[in-house]
């Protein structure tokens, strides 16, 4: 795209890496903004990650089982360049502004006002690069009465309506096993960057006036990212005064769809909730009486009798090992699948064929090993793009970035 303001980066167009030529500066810790950076890097953008000297991104120590850099960090920050800079110093701030001058976009997830205190406010960034796209991720957004509150994904998932729906109705609200709120926000931030840059390029091509930095800014609030995934949660309340509640392994209002135990102590997920699929499912499990019951022809009635249907399905799955049950359901055209562990996924043929599990050499506590990483989503073609290098060592690319991009003497 541009560096600075319109001179294209060197390199041909790449249909496999359509963001090649983009340069993105990442000022982010933990998961949200770094997820945006990872997605942009996956598809070819040069992402320069700024990390504090000595300690770097705190994610390096999250779920750290050996060595000094976790696989969580290696995963979320793959394909990036790591540069050590102290943003609290004048030298660090000048260097960031020099990088801003030659970047297309900046993504950050500091608490609102933090960059302003470090002399990296919106006006200063704009002065360094009037066409810079800035994506900001925060707990509650850059405006509004809660904008100054800190918050991680756990808080956002609660405020966005998700936590109230996760778990069993007779137990406290639960959490999914990943920082899903952060990841969703990162997806939105990456989409916002690409959308704003596309608008910029289309305006250039048409000879139209560029929009101002305020209109081009991308403001992602964690809780809003979560709320956007809550389907008709609020419309159901607004229109019908219906409050959804926790329903365990079921989805409220949809039946039958649940996890069912098999004879080998493994579990299957069966989604027999569409009208025609329900009839095929009941026939496959030997309950033609339920398949032909006209009162069960529509989902609403099936939800009212969900306990009865779940008991009928579980009575059948308990008689068969998991794989045999899945074969029967597959033959009947019923959506079903196993509940896979990490070990299952790493060895799964379907994941491998589509390139969704890729082995990459990584230094694990001083020993270089081939480590399985998730592939690149979405696919562009029949299989995943190759995964870039895993998240870098702290400051691994400081000299390269400062000399190659900024033309400074090698330190």
UniProtKB/TrEMBL annotation:
Single Gene Ontology MF annotation: CoA-transferase activity
Segments passing through the bilayer: none
UniProt entry keywords in alphabetical sequence: Transferase
InterPro entries from the UniProt entry: CoA-transferase_III_domain, CoA-Trfase_fam_III, CoA-Trfase_III_dom3_sf, CoA-Trfase_III_dom_1_sf
Superkingdom of source: Bacteria
Xref: Pfam families: CoA_transf_3 (PF02515)
Name of the molecule in the record: Formyl-CoA transferase
Taxonomic lineage from the root: Bacteria, Bacillati, Actinomycetota, Actinomycetes, Micrococcales
